[in-house]
Amino acid sequence: DFRCGFCKTYLPKIGLKHCRKCDYSGLHYCLQCHVGDLHAIPARIIRNWDFTLYPIARQAFTLLEMIWTRKVIRLSNICDHLFDVIPILAKTSKMRKNLSDINFYIQKC
C-alpha cells in the first residue's frame, strides 16, 4: 500500500522516478503533489541552525509559507542553549527584553 502522502494515488514500488520524498513530512508523493518546491525546515533550523533549502511537497510548502513569518515557535522554551552559542540570538533576545521594558514604562505614563 504505497500511496501519495496527499492525494493517496498508488505509487509504484519499483523505480522512485515516479515519486518524490518530502524532507518535511518524510512521506512519498506523486509528481503532481511534489513539484520540487524548496524551503528551510523549522526543525533543522532549531536543532542545527541549518537554513538549507530542502525539497518538500506542495502541501508542506503551503503550510510553511503560511506560518513562516508568524511567531509560532518559542525558541527559548525548546532550545535555550542556542542563545549561548549563537551571539545574534542572545543580542536579539536582550533587545526584545529591553523593548518590552520600555513599552511597560511608556504605557504607564
From TrEMBL:
Superkingdom of the organism of origin: Eukaryota
What Gene Ontology molecular function terms does this protein carry? zinc ion binding
Listed InterPro entries:
DEF8, RH_dom
Domain Rubicon Homology, first and last residues per copy: 20-109
Give UniProt keywords alphabetically: Metal-binding, Repeat, Zinc, Zinc-finger
What Pfam family is a match for this entry?
Answer: RH_dom
Q: Which SMART domains match?
A: DUF4206
Q: What is this protein called?
A: Differentially expressed in FDCP 8 homolog (Trinotate prediction)
Origin species, per record, is: Myxobolus squamalis (Myxosporean)
